[in-house]
Amino acid sequence: MTRKPEILIVYTGGTIGMVKDYQTGALKAFDFSQILEKIPELKLLNCNISTISFEEPIDSSNMNIDYYVNIAEIIANNYEKFDGFVVLTGSDTMSYTSSAISFMFENLKKPVIFTGSQLPIGHLRTDAKENLITSIEIASAYNEEEPIVKEVGLYFEYKLYRANRTTKINAEQFEAFTSMNYPPIAESGVHLNFNHHLLLDPSKNGDKLIFRKNLDNNIAILKLFPGITEKVVRAYLSIPGLKGLIIETYGAGNAPTKEWFLMFLKDCIAQGVFIVNVTQCAGGSVILGHYETSSALKSLGVIDGKDITTETAVAKMMYLLGEKLSKEDFKRYFETSLRGEITN
Ligand code: ASP
């Protein structure tokens, strides 16, 4: 690139931007426009940095679809002006948020890198500096005039993952995320190494960024466990306005074959609820029809979540419900990779 890349940091909240309130001992957000003063090293990076912050930064436990739209609007409104985006959110729900953003943008051709930290930026042993500095480097990595990453990524502890493949796996360790079904798309050590063959290639997509923000959160998750009772599962049928249900099944997509369970699925489908089968295993895929216990689900018309994570199934369901698709199209799109979120 012949000029310095312009990078926009979007701060929404989370531990990374917090300081200790010495009166209460609790963590609270600091004014993020001071970020360049807090981390003078940022001035050494080969890019120009601008920041934009939520007026009231949030703990990511309070994240919701309105905030998704806020984040996506900031990116959409600044898309032409900036070369790359770094979005800071709390790590607790970062996989959900970054997955949702990945669906909301079609034809994305610039890097959108989510990061955060386990310790606040002012803490002596903080992981925030490395996470932030490398995320900015990734967002400003260009090959000639082309950005290297043209998708939504999540960077944490030396690894850049495809965001919609990630899961938070540790509440304490700096290595807080993993991506069981897709390798890291970049790794940082002495060098920043991109796994070029694993990056999304949107060159065949249209040129114009399409931004969709009609998310529908009338959904629920049902996690199976041995001993689950009929009255528990049937309670889902009385959720007013329910449109989508993600069932976290066992292993390769297996569920009880008891009549009451199959009746529940039939009744849900008859009510017009879309049911997606996702495995509760951390890695691997649903393989419908592999066992008798999953064949029944297949013949009832349950959607195959393949190797999607629960976090991304939630985001994809909200996105596709918002598109108001026909039954057939909903199933077809859910079972197809839209942003590299499943292995086809
Ligand atoms: N509770 C924080 C949040 O998700 C944790 C973090 O930032 O890592 O907002």
From TrEMBL:
Hydrolase among keywords: yes
The Asparaginase/glutaminase C-terminal domain, residue ranges: 218-334
Pfam short name (any one): Asparaginase_C
Catalytic residues as annotated in Swiss-Prot or TrEMBL: T15
Main EC class the enzyme belongs to: hydrolase
Domain L-asparaginase N-terminal: 7-197
EC number: 3.5.1.1
GO MF entries: asparaginase activity
Protein keywords: Hydrolase
InterPro entries, A to Z: AsnA_fam, Asp/glu_Ase-like_sf, Asparaginase/glutaminase-like, Asparaginase/glutaminase_AS1, Asparaginase_C, L-asparaginase_C, L-asparaginase_I, L-asparaginase_N
Highest taxon, organism lineage: Bacteria
Keyword Cell membrane (UniProt): no
PANTHER family listed in its UniProt record: 60 KDA LYSOPHOSPHOLIPASE, L-ASPARAGINASE
Family under the similarity heading: Belongs to the asparaginase 1 family.
Protein name: L-asparaginase 1
Organism for this UniProt entry: Tenacibaculum polynesiense
